[in-house]
Amino acid sequence: MANVLVTGGTGFIGSRVCTALHEQGDTVHVLSRNPGRAQSKLKSVRAVYGWNPETEKLPPEATSEIEAVVHLAGETIAGRWNGEKKRRIRDSRILSTRNLVESLAAADTKPSTLVCASAIGYYGASGDERFTELSAAGTDFLATTCQEWESEAQKAIELGIRVVMVRIGLVLGLGGGLLAQVLTPFKVGIGGILGNGQQWMSWIHIDDVVGIVLHALENNEIRGALNATAPAPVRNVEFTKTLGSVLRRPTLFPVPTFGLKLMMGEFADFVVLSQNVVPEKTEVSGYEFRHRTLESALKDLL
């Protein structure tokens, strides 16, 4: 059992992490912009502290006797991108991580572990090349954002804190993630491939994201990056056919790239980005996936 501090605890992934930590006997503390909302939503947490992650250091009481930190706070990347949206995406990750680590530096007692979310956007476009945790970083907006994000987290190493960056792929779960974006058109029979359908999609079931976060917390020998993606990425055309099959709906209406651009602006470039990312280090570290195939994941959820 441990005292664990979680940021982003009311989010799609964070709320499930809080529940899983509580169920295994850990004492969970949460940082939130809206403590009242967080307290009412997260019944399993011991305490909730108010925190504006982009502008404030942590309240001192939040770090008292904390043994580990899980940092999941960040603006969703979904939605139409413009200058302001991209600023929020970047600042919510980089500034929050900087303020978190600086607060840990000032704390009387320091946690042993920091597990910080990152994203497979770190790698940029892969084409057909397969990326592992050892692959180089990309150069586009998301890639440079992830690099700066991880760089801020790694400053905690100088404090004697073990740091793990969990690079999260396309998360499949109900109530958020990828399915929240695509499920409605598929259910009404107007789902289809995106772009040319040949781009790789590195998906992961929400239960495995939570499992990898807990695995990183519990295994003291793990350091650096872990890819939170299933072992078997698929092309978009296969994802489309499998989702349609599980839902028993046709997949006859492809969405061309120019149509995505009209709907989403620059975010469309991310939607059709080909990323063939595998969890090589994650599996070597001993993590066993609950859902290794897309069909298994979708049938479990739908």
General description of the model:
The two termini are 33 Å apart. With 302 residues, the protein is of the alpha/beta class. The mean pLDDT is 93. The protein is built from eleven helices and 13 strands. The strands form four sheets. The chain has a seven-stranded parallel sheet, sandwiched between helices. 39% of the residues lie in helices and 18% in strands. The protein has a domain at 3-169 and 204-229: NAD(P)-binding Rossmann-like Domain (Rossmann fold). It is globular. Strand 2, helix 2 and strand 3 (47-50) form a beta-alpha-beta unit. It has helices at 14-23, 35-41, 83-106, 141-154, 177-187, 206-218, 236-247, 257-264, 267-271, 280-284, 294-301, and strands at residues 3-7, 27-32, 47-50, 68-71, 113-119, 130-131, 162-168, 170-173, 200-201, 203-205, 224-228, 234-235, 276-277. Helix 1 packs across helix 6 and helix 7 (236-247) runs parallel beside helix 11 (294-301).
Name some characteristics of this structure.
single chain, 302 residues, alpha/beta, Rossmann fold, seven-stranded parallel sheet, two-stranded parallel ribbon, 11 helices, 13 strands
Quote the CATH topology of the domain at 3-169 and 204-229.
Answer: Rossmann fold
Major beta sheet, specifics?
7 strands, parallel
Average per-residue pLDDT, rounded, comes to 93
N/C terminus separation: 33 Å
C-alpha-based Rg, rounded: 19 Å
Following the backbone from N to C, one meets helices and strands in this order, namely EHEHEEHEEHEEHEEHEEHHHEHH
CATH superfamily of the domain at 3-169 and 204-229: NAD(P)-binding Rossmann-like Domain
Rough outline: globular
> What is the total tally of β strands?
13
